[in-house]
């Protein structure tokens, strides 16, 4: 901290309370009188000393400092210190979320003291106000969220600076010449933080990886992974370990399992899927009931605790799905071969087998390790064709084989019966308060160079919902089996809390502007009115915006050992059991389920809680990377369509700009208010609108407007639009 010059003027005493508290805090336990404080502050005129005396008395009266004896003051050792997570804004200041306070604590930029976005920090709170936000200072970085960052190298003669891509990063990194490696000026690189010396303007770092030339496809995709600390390739020793695993099917192992190879079994997956981690089996029973098996790849048979392969899978915790690739949790030998339930191959599986009546209710259940044989593989499109035509003739245009073909009659019957059961289960879930999110997914058609040549939307059809319902059934019943049997047994649950009241109230305000209503009276009425809203907006201009805003009202789902149920699905017990190839929590669930089937004692809760926390964190990073890769591809797509006019919907309004989402491709960009030259527009927060000061012209959330691209910035993954006017105005010109 720079020392103030001595100046005999009271104008140096701005925010005197804070300056006094800082002196006492940084010299904890020592007592000071007004003369000593005046000396440290560098003032000696009577007016300043008088102000200091008054302020000391006020702070003592408010119990912010302690008067030890007449005229002598100190601060208690750890009073007003708290811990929390720093949330940076793009404007250079931050907020810290502290458990003890309802509101976040404001941290000015000059009080960040080397803390970055996401860091766990200790802060000192200067004033805990009821009406205004409390303000504080970071006193210590407890735990860095990350130490590696992605940026562009600005190379000088004897050193370099790395400008970080992240808008929430407020500083660049200084890199000494001997730590620049082979990077060239303008390269996109990964820089690792090493130190931030006291008097240095920037932290010191070293370049650990050169990603390539900014704007090139491979550079940007690897940059997204590196930005979130996500791995790409497997270490050589992990690949070698995986390749040495015996993946053959052994008779001695089959004898330990329930043999279901003779039961009709098949998979339904996306047509471009390479890892098939779930299969369904189906047979009619003599009493008119059905036996349905949900068979999941037995990853835990190969993935043994304590091995380097298990450590790598745990660190990754999830597969990452970017627009042009999958970064798998497990090496290919397992993910695409040994564990993948490929057609006409015997596989080790972990199964949930249910006897079900004609109303799709479970009358008996069994869980355990099995060996299965997949009789056929279907893409969702093929299964959907069977559902719609009620027959097995798959035309060439739908077939994932080279030509048209006829599906096995028994499988066609099984798919139709399973579809009817799935519809009954789904209907029951909705009646019990589940919320139906059928959000449209944006997908890209890519050429051989991974350039986007088209955009299409993926929606959930009956075939998707068929698989979804039976996976939900397995996940729910596995969680119930452990949780109801003994709530004290350590288990991994997928938890989802009730929505936040204030977010629901905000949603109600927004949707009311489109003529929709919500009933927020109680838990069930909230769920049913949210479902009604999601149905009502289908096909409307505001659909995607309302879908997105409704999802944002929801709490974030997470993994935990304390079961609170799953609000969105309306289940009292829920877990993830069905995707161990791509999610580590499912591997943990398999291990715990087998442990309890073997009547072993409960597992260590603290150990599993830590693993749950890590898995939730990694899921969040993967989701952010996936979202950024979509945004990158949207910007890339729009670069080639800069001369076209589009109809979009105003999807957000702020005090600096209007966000617009193009209807035909879901690309979102911003119109900056300063670019609107016809008037000076002011933000109307209450009505989610901007209003022209002279013309009173209004642009409001949900309005349809014409836009074209002003700027497509691939490096910042950002689109700027020009506003051409409201849709009806442009079309009536």
Automatic annotation (TrEMBL):
Pfam families: CSD2, OB_RNB, RNB, S1. It is an enzyme of class 3 (hydrolase). PROSITE patterns: RIBONUCLEASE_II, S1. The keyword Hydrolase applies. It catalyses: Exonucleolytic cleavage in the 3'- to 5'-direction to yield nucleoside 5'-phosphates. Keywords: Cytoplasm, Exonuclease, Hydrolase, Nuclease, RNA-binding. It is found in: Cytoplasm. Its EC number is 3.1.13.1. It comes from the Bacteria. Residues 643-724 form the S1 motif domain. Belongs to the RNR ribonuclease family. RNase R subfamily. 3'-5' exoribonuclease that releases 5'-nucleoside monophosphates and is involved in maturation of structured RNAs. This is Ribonuclease R. It comes from Autumnicola lenta. The lineage of its organism: Bacteria, Pseudomonadati, Bacteroidota, Flavobacteriia, Flavobacteriales.
């Amino acid at each position: 901290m720079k020392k103030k010059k001595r100046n005999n003027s009271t104008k140096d005493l701005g925010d005197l309370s804070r300056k006094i508290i800082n002196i006492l805090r940084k010299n904890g336990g020592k007592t000071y009188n007004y003369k000593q404080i005046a000396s440290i502050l560098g003032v000696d005129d009577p007016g300043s000393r008088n102000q200091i005396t008054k302020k000391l008395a006020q702070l003592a009266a408010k119990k912010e400092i302690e008067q030890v004896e007449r005229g002598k003051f100190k601060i208690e050792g750890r009073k007003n210190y708290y811990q929390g997570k720093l949330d940076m804004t793009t404007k250079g200041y931050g907020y810290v979320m502290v458990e003890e306070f309802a509101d976040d604590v404001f941290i000015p930029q000059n009080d960040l003291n080397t803390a970055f976005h996401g860091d766990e920090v200790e802060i000192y709170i200067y004033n805990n106000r009821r009406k205004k936000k409390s303000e504080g200072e970071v006193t210590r970085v407890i735990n860095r969220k990350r130490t590696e960052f992605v940026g562009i190298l600005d190379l000088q003669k004897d050193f370099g600076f790395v400008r970080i891509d992240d808008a929430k990063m407020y500083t660049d990194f200084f890199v000494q010449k001997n730590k620049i490696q082979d990077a060239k000026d303008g390269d996109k690189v990964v820089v690792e933080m090493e130190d931030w010396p006291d008097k240095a303007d920037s932290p010191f770092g070293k370049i650990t990886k050169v990603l390539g030339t900014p704007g090139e496809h491979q550079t940007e995709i690897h940059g997204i992974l590196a930005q979130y600390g996500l791995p790409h390739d497997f270490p050589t020793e992990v690949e070698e370990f995986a390749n040495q695993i015996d993946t053959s099917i052994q008779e001695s192992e089959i004898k330990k399992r329930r043999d279901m190879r003779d039961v009709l079994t098949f998979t339904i997956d996306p047509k471009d899927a390479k890892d098939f981690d779930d299969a369904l089996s189906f047979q009619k029973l003599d009493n008119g009931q059905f036996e349905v098996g949900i068979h999941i790849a037995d990853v835990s048979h190969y993935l043994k605790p304590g091995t380097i392969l298990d450590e790598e899978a745990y660190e990754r915790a999830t597969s990452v799905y970017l627009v042009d690739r999958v970064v798998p949790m497990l090496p290919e030998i397992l993910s695409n071969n040994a564990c993948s339930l490929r057609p006409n191959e015997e596989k080790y599986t972990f199964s949930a087998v249910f006897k079900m009546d004609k109303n799709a209710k479970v009358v008996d259940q069994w869980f355990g390790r099995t060996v299965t044989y997949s009789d056929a593989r279907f893409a969702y499109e093929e299964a959907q064709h069977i559902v719609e035509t009620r027959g097995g003739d798959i035309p060439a245009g739908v077939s994932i084989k080279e030509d048209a073909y006829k599906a096995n009659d028994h499988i066609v019957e099984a798919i139709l019966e399973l579809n009817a059961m799935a519809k009954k289960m789904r209907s029951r879930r909705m009646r019990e308060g589940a919320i139906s999110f059928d959000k449209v997914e944006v997908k890209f058609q890519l050429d051989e160079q991974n350039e986007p040549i088209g955009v299409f939307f993926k929606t959930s059809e009956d075939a998707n919902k068929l698989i979804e319902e039976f996976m939900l059934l397995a996940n729910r019943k596995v969680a119930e089996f452990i949780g109801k049997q003994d709530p004290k047994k350590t288990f991994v649950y997928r938890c989802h809390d009730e929505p936040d009241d204030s977010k629901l109230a905000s949603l109600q305000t927004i949707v009311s502007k489109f003529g929709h209503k919500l009933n927020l009276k109680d838990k069930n009425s909230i769920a049913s009115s949210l479902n009604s809203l999601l149905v009502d907006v289908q096909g409307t201009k505001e659909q995607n915006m309302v879908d997105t805003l409704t999802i944002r009202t929801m709490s974030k789902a997470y993994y935990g050992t304390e079961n609170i149920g799953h609000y969105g699905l309306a289940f009292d017990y829920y877990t993830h059991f069905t995707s161990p190839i791509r999610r580590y929590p499912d591997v943990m669930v398999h291990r715990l389920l087998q442990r309890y089937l073997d009547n072993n004692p409960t597992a260590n809760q603290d150990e599993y809680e830590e693993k749950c926390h890590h898995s939730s964190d990694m899921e969040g990073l993967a989701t952010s990377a996936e979202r950024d890769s979509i945004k990158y591809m949207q910007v890339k797509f729009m670069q080639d369509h800069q001369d076209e006019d589009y109809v979009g919907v105003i999807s957000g309004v702020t005090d600096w700009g209007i966000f617009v989402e193009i209807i035909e491709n879901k690309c979102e960009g911003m119109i900056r208010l300063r670019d609107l030259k016809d008037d000076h527009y002011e933000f109307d927060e209450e009505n989610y609108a901007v209003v022209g000061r002279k013309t009173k012209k209004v642009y409001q959330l949900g309005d349809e407007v014409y836009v074209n691209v002003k700027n497509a910035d691939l490096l910042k993954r950002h689109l700027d639009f020009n506003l051409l006017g409201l849709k009806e105005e442009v079309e009536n010109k």
